[in-house]
């Protein structure tokens, strides 16, 4: 008997779920439908910085989740046979103007590395050494470098994972759907019943599950990104994220 699974949300989380569902033993007996209207997707709008280890957030559950996500990327990219145009482990540099702040940051990095082997090597850099690695900087500051830091092209990753899963058992429906009080997925063609529903909608989670009588403590957080057009540098693709 075929099992039907719905994934609501087609960003990195939803696409990764679809990919792994397509690789399960017996995946030919699983029919997966992913719903996403492609509007407001954080995965395609974000800067793609993979470097959670120096975060000073006090929420340890968040840190463990983010660290596990960073650990998964190299394995996922390898298994899905995606290349450096999708994911690049270029290293991350975090700068500090104040020397005492830099020492505190370095101490945090050393401590976090004890339980995060994927951080790679950790070292302090002078302002000149930072500029040597990122020549486009005009006013560099000293910093801490983590060689395991990386960047990901969210849109390319999503497209690659969905293309792979679509060869097996995935159908993508480009529409925004809702849930009703019975947990059915309300589509443009009416209510549909699934054996399992995976919710990967990020900031829309609270709104989506409200009909179920469940309140999610999830709030959208606005950020600003500035995209710079700079002259081509010979080592541009290998520059660390700053």
Please supply descriptive tags for the structure shown above.
FAD/NAD(P)-binding domain, three-stranded antiparallel β-sheet, 7 helices, 31% helix, 19% strand, elongated
Provide an overview of this structure.
The protein is α/β, with parallel strands linked by helices and 242 residues long. It has a domain at 3-48 and 153-238: 3-Layer(bba) Sandwich (FAD/NAD(P)-binding domain), CATH 3.50.50.60. It contains 7 helices and 13 strands. It has helices spanning 12-23, 42-45, 60-79, 99-113, 127-133, 154-166, 205-209, and strands spanning 3-8, 30-35, 49-50, 87-88, 92-95, 122-125, 143-146, 150-152, 170-173, 178-179, 185-187, 190-192, 196-199. The strands form 4 sheets. A 4-stranded parallel beta sheet has the order 9-2-1-13. The chain has a 3-stranded antiparallel beta sheet with strand order 3-8-4. Helix 1 packs parallel to helix 6. The longest helix is centred in the N-terminal third of the chain and has 20 residues, at 60-79. It starts with a strand and ends in a 33-residue tail after the last helix. The mean pLDDT is 92.
Write the layout of secondary structure elements.
Blueprint: E1 3-8, H1 12-23, E2 30-35, H2 42-45, E3 49-50, H3 60-79, E4 87-88, E5 92-95, H4 99-113, E6 122-125, H5 127-133, E7 143-146, E8 150-152, H6 154-166, E9 170-173, E10 178-179, E11 185-187, E12 190-192, E13 196-199, H7 205-209
Parallel strand pairs: 1-2, 1-13, 2-9
Antiparallel strand pairs: 3-8, 4-8, 5-7, 6-7, 10-11, 11-12
Helix pairs in contact: 1-6
């Amino acid at each position: 008997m075929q099992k039907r699974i719905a994934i609501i949300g087609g960003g990195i989380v939803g696409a990764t779920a679809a990919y792994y569902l397509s690789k399960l033993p017996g995946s030919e007996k699983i029919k997966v439908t992913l719903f996403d209207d492609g509007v407001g997707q954080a995965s395609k709008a974000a800067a793609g910085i993979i470097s959670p280890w120096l975060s000073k957030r006090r929420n340890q559950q968040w840190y463990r989740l983010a660290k596990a996500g960073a650990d998964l990327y190299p394995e996922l990219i390898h298994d899905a046979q995606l290349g450096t145009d999708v994911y690049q482990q270029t290293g991350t540099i975090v700068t500090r103007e104040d020397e005492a702040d830099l020492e505190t940051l370095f101490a945090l990095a050393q401590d976090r590395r004890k339980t995060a082997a994927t951080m790679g090597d950790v070292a302090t850099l002078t302002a000149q050494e930072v500029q040597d690695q990122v020549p486009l900087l005009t006013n560099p500051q000293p910093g801490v470098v983590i060689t395991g830091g990386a960047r990901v092209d969210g849109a390319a990753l999503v497209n690659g994972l969905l293309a792979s899963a679509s060869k097996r058992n995935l159908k993508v429906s480009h529409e925004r759907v809702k849930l009703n009080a019975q947990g059915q997925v309300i589509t443009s063609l009416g209510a549909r019943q699934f054996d399992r529903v995976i919710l990967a909608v990020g900031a829309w989670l609270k709104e989506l599950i409200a009909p179920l009588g469940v309140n999610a403590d999830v709030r959208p957080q606005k950020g600003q990104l500035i995209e710079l057009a700079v002259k081509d540098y010979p080592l541009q693709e290998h520059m660390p994220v700053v």
